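Training component of the fellowship. As part of building independent skills, the fellow (R.M.) carried out the full modelling exercise for a liganded target. The chosen ligand was FWK. The inputs are recorded below so that the supervisory panel can assess the work.
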Amino acid sequence: MEIQNKRMSDDEFNAIRAQVLTQWPTGKEVDLQESIDFHKKLPKNKIFSLKLKEAKDKRITLVQPRAGVALIKEHIELLTYLQDKGGADLLPTTIDSYTRQNRYEEAENGISESIKSGKSMLNGFPAVNHGVNGCRQIIESLNVPVQMRHGTPDARLLAEIGFAGGFTSYEGGGISYNIPYAKSVLLEKTILDWQYCDRLAGVYEEAGISINREPFGPLTGTLVPPCISHAVAIIESLLAAEQGVKNITVGYGQCGNLVQDVAAIGTLEELTEEYLHKYGYNDVVVTTVLHQWMGGFPQDEAKAFGVISWGSSVAALSKATKVIVKTPHEAMGVPTMEANAQGLRCTKQVISMLGDQTLTAAGLEQEKRIISEETRCIVDKCFELGSGDIALGAVRAFQAGVIDVPFAPSRYNAGKMLPARDNNGAIRILNAGAVPLSKELLDFNKDMIEERAKFEKRKASFQMVIDDVYAISKGRLVGRP
Ligand SMILES: CC[C@H]1O[C@@H](n2cnc3c(N)ncnc32)[C@H](O)[C@@H]1O
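Fellow's submitted model of the complex:
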């Protein structure tokens, strides 16, 4: 399967589209021109990219939850509650796991089971089964923009129905919804499928309808060095821009050291814009999203609010355009709407108290330099591996272990690079594997881990990685011996 970072031709796009729309009966409801006309009638307050652009210009941080239940009426009740009682600036529709695996039959069963039992038997909203009109009922019932959030390797039909249904933002990407989410799905396949989704967004864009795209930043959410998640975000931004996407939110999962996390958000926006401009995409609006702590959560709700507050501080101090909010039920599973709204109000409280402050810390500039240089080592190597083509380069980078996502389930991920925290909890690289960092950068990472080894009176080793993974469940950041 030849892969290249080239805008899909109309013939190629239409040929794929004809097949995609047959994958489930609701595909027949999609009429592109009618959908574009529907979007044109949407009021400005329902358009995701406008609200993000305004937040970027005002340097404020918007709050957005995750939320999704099986049935339309209950999903509207949930989102309305989060909008009115939680103060959500932006709303999600989190898609259920069956739909993410294109298992629409089982999603259909989940709907009928939910009707029968009177409670949601799915862990999200089965948008494909509810179809275009089902999605439009959501959009028409709310006052703020709504984004489709999921984890779908083949998200083409979901995009067709979501865009036609009035969603004005779509999360995911050919790398970020494959490597952390799937075990054996070819990267070439998901990059191609997501070029389709981005091309569809480009078609709406060319009709004057702005669709925001958001690569999934945190990846596995477990000790992912900023340079790794940044490299994926930048590559997916370049792939999306080539297909005509004009509004991109790049993301990052909070890792735990305040200076590193603030430096990560700042460099993410700068580097994404740098690479978009370097490769000729000068009309793309770039914003950022911080995902509150993606690791394990304490069961105790008071402690959970502590973790949520900490993530909110990072979002505010890093001036992230948007923060994805966790809930005090994180350790239990799908939250109640009350708990979800509490997470939002807790976050808004911290942001409003910190919103006028910026972090000027010793080491912040150094951290930004380190993250930028590490990220450039990786992305530039990808271009080299692809002889200038970043799609081909990305595939070859994973094959060579140049991009290596820690703890990823995908068999196409090398899994050789080992991260560990330094003595301040910042994520460093213990063993680079084939990640092509310069000697200076390798030495920096080694020295920072050595500092911890000396403090802990033990050798730097794989045991540190294990201790760091388990530290979270003990309410710690650094896995002390
Ligand atoms: C990326 C993983 C995150 O998505 C969250 N999540 C998944 N499904 C839902 C859901 N249906 N409602 C609220 N949060 C959800 C989950 O708690 C975790 O924090």
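The panel noted the following from the submitted structure. The chain has two domains: 10-354, 416-481. The pocket of FWK is lined by residues 66-68, 94, 123-124, 326, 330, 334-335 (CB under 6 Å).
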